[in-house]
Specification:
Elements (H helix, E strand, L loop, with lengths): L2 E7 L7 H8 L5 E7 L5 H7 L3 E5 L7 H12 L8 E4 L4 E3 L5 H11 L3 E8 L5 E3 L8 E7 L25 E3 L5 E3 L5 H13 L1 H4 L3 H6 L6 E3 L3 H5 L3
Parallel strand pairs: 1-2, 1-4, 2-3, 6-9, 6-10
Antiparallel strand pairs: 4-8, 5-10, 6-8, 7-11
Length: about 230
């Protein structure tokens, strides 16, 4: 099994990048990073953790789909058909990074081409959100590489996985979780609400979802798979 961790970063040095990189270092694979025009130490931090880094001019915020497509085409030189890719953001970790190999092996036995991970949106260091739009999502961020794969051509909200993943058999498991820290700080929630409000059409969300970012949340302490399987 060959696993490649795929990531696009911009100015993440003072946010959650160290947390993410320490988590990635425990995974059974190598990380490939496109640094999207960072003006801080993001690219150097990634290199210090052994990542292969591609430095580019800023593109992601102008057209996310094109930026992700270019990143994937660059990564292709390091990949072979049948390799697995974990598409990770710089503010995400995995609860059990060492178990990714087991999840992939299970998918291989079943003939699945992708693995979905339950998504937990953290609002504090120990609590995740369970109300409305923020509970119950699975993310098919782990998938088998295919040559010629395409990302949806959308300016915003294109999805991090290639379009073919939507049409293949997905191994839906509950042990390995995707933990998202991007809404952890109040200033992040304010910034994202403002950005998505200004570009609502491109992001593809309704007003309710966007406005819920700054609404009063319902939180639950993160305790692992048993919390995920119970209802809010």
């Amino acid at each position: 099994m060959t696993l490649a961790i795929s990531m696009i970063c911009r100015n993440e040095a003072d946010r959650h990048l160290i947390r993410t990189m320490e988590n990635v270092a425990r995974m059974p694979g190598r990380c490939y990073v496109t640094d999207d025009g960072s003006t801080d130490d993001t690219a150097n931090i990634c290199e210090d953790f052994g990542c292969v880094v591609r430095r580019t001019a800023p593109q992601f915020w102008q057209h996310e789909g094109q930026a992700r497509q270019a990143h994937m085409e660059w990564m292709a030189q390091f990949l072979s058909p049948g390799d697995w890719i974990l598409a990770l953001d710089a503010d995400e970790t995995i609860n059990y990074p060492e178990r990714l190999e087991h999840a992939i092996s299970s998918a291989d036995r079943l003939g699945d081409q992708a693995v979905s991970l339950p998504l937990f949106e953290f609002w504090t260091e120990t609590e995740y959100r369970v109300d409305g739009y923020w509970f119950g999502a699975h993310a098919p961020v782990l998938y088998r590489w295919r040559e010629g794969a395409k990302i949806a051509d959308k300016e915003m909200g294109c999805g991090r996985e290639p379009t073919f993943v939507r049409n293949v058999q997905v191994f839906r498991q509950t042990v390995v979780h995707l933990l998202h820290w991007g809404y952890l700080y109040p200033e992040d929630r304010t910034r994202k609400h403002k950005a998505y409000t200004e570009r609502l059409g491109g992001h593809g969300h309704d007003n309710g979802h966007v406005n819920s970012i700054i609404a009063e949340p319902t939180l639950r302490s993160y305790e692992g798979a048993s919390s995920w399987m119970s209802s809010p």
